[in-house]
Design brief:
Oligomer: single chain
Largest sheet: 8 strands, antiparallel
Distance between the termini: 51 Å
Strand order of the largest sheet: 1-2-3-4-5-11-16-15
Radius of gyration: 20 Å
Number of strands: 18
Shape: globular
Helix content: under 10%
CATH class: Mainly Beta
Structural class: mainly beta
CATH architecture: Distorted Sandwich
Strand content: 35-45%
Number of domains: 1
Amino acid sequence: MKRYLTIALLAALPCLAQVDIKQQADRMDISINGAPFSTFFYGPDAPKPYLHPLRTASGKIVTRAYPMADVEGESRDHPHHRGLWFTHGDVNGFDFWANEERQKGPKKGKIVLEKAGPVQNGKKKGTLEASFNWLDPQGNTVLKEARKMTFYADRDRRVMDIYITLTAATDIKFGDTKEGTFAIRLATPLEEPSPKSKGIARTGKMVNAEGLETEKNVWGKRSAWVDYEGELEGEKLGIAILDHPSNPRYPTYWHSRGYGLFAANIFGVQDFTRDKSKDGSLNLEKGKSLRFLYRVVIHPGDAKTAQIAKEFKAFSKIK
């Protein structure tokens, strides 16, 4: 009898290799290989759509809980840093980056859902789609966003591709500011160590495609990818963001901070170069579009053992 049970269990194992996305009114829950991975929030309470939390294949949460929840000893700065998100701090002068209700300012924009779905589940991958309107303080649409996210059923890693198309509803100027754009706020233990750090031990270190390490050498530099690695609950792991070669102004600049902010930003050239004679703003005529594609890899080990350089070569071949 035990022999037949074993055979039955082994036969069922391949079925676990799957992506399952469940859609609700204000969110989508993503499970991979039978375990929760993340939730995509887009309801009326969210000032922008975001993914939270992000988990490793072993179930560890690599994103900061705040401001969605308070965790003892965790950093509680920058309340607009929600999981994984995509916004910018200057779109026709409106701030879609630091746009929480608790944050002051008359020029805060908001990103609201237009349509959620469709969703496709599968054994090797699953996808979700959604469309959004970027609204100015008066409720006028300045940008239309179409988003598609693909999640892969990998056994040891968590990999997702995020496609974003922004279409101008009016003439648009993306201003030159470091406050943007495709970003993740990492869990406090993954922050880089600092003399100012208190409480929870910090173990993080960022490294880019050129092999430069730490915020001092990575922040404000251009690179095809950055990996933010450290130790979480006894496991050595990393989170990599890959910038696709088809993206505008590839390779991107990096607004990656030792305190756990991890962002790709093509616009903040003056800030990143510390050269006021340069202008990183970008104009987009009404009806025209910008398209972005990023890959996020949550992996065991560091960038070298996870072969992030090899991962990037494969990713760069996507059309």
